[in-house]
Amino acid sequence: xxxxxxxNLVKSYGKxxxxxxxxxxxxxxRIVGLIGPNGSGKTTALKSLMGMCPLDSGTLSVxxxxxxxxxxxxxxxxxxxxxxxxxxxWMRVGDLVKFVNDVHPAFDLDAARARLQTTDITTNAKxxxxxxxxxxxxxxxxxxxxxxxxxILDEPTLGLDILYRQAFYDGLLNDHFEAQRSIVxxxxxxxxxxxxxxxVVFIHRGKVALTSPMDRIGERxxxxxxxxxxxxxxxxxxxxxxxxxxxxxxxxxxxxDSAELAKLGTVSVPSLTDLFVAVVGAxx
Length: 284
Prior knowledge:
Rossmann fold; 284 residues; alpha/beta; 2 domains
């Protein structure tokens, strides 16, 4: 059974449509990257999955439940976590762990305490006094102690440097991910999560611009780096995007014969960042 079935979701705030016919399916055992620019509808989509905002129209099922109507039951099997900066700086570590234990039925207090014992974090330390690295460790301890079927992370490493961001995602992948669990991640640091994703969804102006398993991206999309004198031939093949770089011309294609493209330059699979810009378009 699919963990998430979202069909034609619409959500408006005044005259602005945050979701405009949004569709998404998430199967068990998947790590899904929801990628989009600011204002694309990412956070609204995630909040709708958690029943945090009623929809104007569309049908949505999460773990077989209607989120807005069955939020109490849903939150026993789901966890929604925003960036590490949302941890209350005035609270002590031990009090935070006890608080989460009191409010989240799927929280494993012993597991959180055991993980914290592997760090230098003391339970009486105020969160506001912790280093960035310790904040990541505390956040991981809380996240990984939630025994849920669906974990939703909205920019979970915002404000952290690259080392701490990588430590967070490595810990998440190694200690949380299981065959029957799924994770949804939104982040602007796409390159850092690309290697752990099983699926990707591009969202733009409230609509899905692309949805694909990661292992199918290379079958459908191709990037070519060629000399500038090949520009006319590349343009004749109708690329999604073509741009000049220090290395010549870089072009991204969809459903185009790789053998034909290889005659013009070096062929590779585009990164998610390059693919997003090619599919959605560069900012105006």
